[in-house]
Amino acid sequence: MQIRKPAVAGQFYGGTKRACIDEIKDCISLAHIPKEQLPETIVAGIVPHAGWTFSGELAAMVFSAIKQADEKVDTFVIFGAVHSYMGSLAAVYDKGQWRTPLGDIWIDETLAAEIIKTSTPAESEPDAHKFEHSIEVQVPFIQHLFPKAKIVPVMTPPATFAVQLGSDVAGCIKKVPDKKIVCIGSTDLTHYGPRYGFCPHGTGSEALKWAKEVNDQAFIDLAVNMKAQEVLTTSMEKENACGCGAAAATIASAKAQGKTAGQLLSHTHSNEVMQQKFNQSSEESVGYAAIVF
To answer: Deepest of 3, 102, 231, 234, by most Cβ within 10 A of its Cβ?
Structure first.
């Protein structure tokens, strides 16, 4: 059987079952949002994919919100950012299992096959997932909160087909109304500072404020207003989302399922987290947002 082994366990998140569970519980305890403040139904979410120390709380916020809306989710389609894969299509991991410190989780092979059959931009390419972290860091949250759920990992380049891919996936979801399927888009926001080669406003606190309040906010405004195509094109211009293809596919899928607006749950960046947790600061920052649809 084909099993995708963890690539960043022990680096981005706990490398043992106990450490992983403890970290998840810590993230969830900090991420609670009252149910009455959430949408009645949630069909999709956008999560960050940095190490859990920095962005785990926001990822937990989205998965916890989904849990409050629907106790049982059958499958998560996870659109992932692409950091090293150079393929021209969306790479679907369509058979077998994924392994994390919490054990193995099954691929929804039926849904994966339907996505590949239905959507021209999607192809079976399990090897593309071997070293990518943007999907992997979400999987333990799913295993912990939705132990019976399956996944369909889809690495989604920042290509024009991302919007069509999302709409196609929505069509596949509609064909199985007896199953609860949620789409997740994995992206961090502005990577600002000399280390990232992006500092149009120089360095210092005012520059990091611009990165969050202007550049990140431009992405957030488009996302919550369901502007999938604009998210894709604007993010590449403004460099404010490393997973803009994944985000665009998620938004397009939610819109095709009838959603008219997203809801921002939280927004921060790595420098704020460093200051809060370690009383340290940096010239660099990476933005993180938690959004549900």
So the answer is: 231
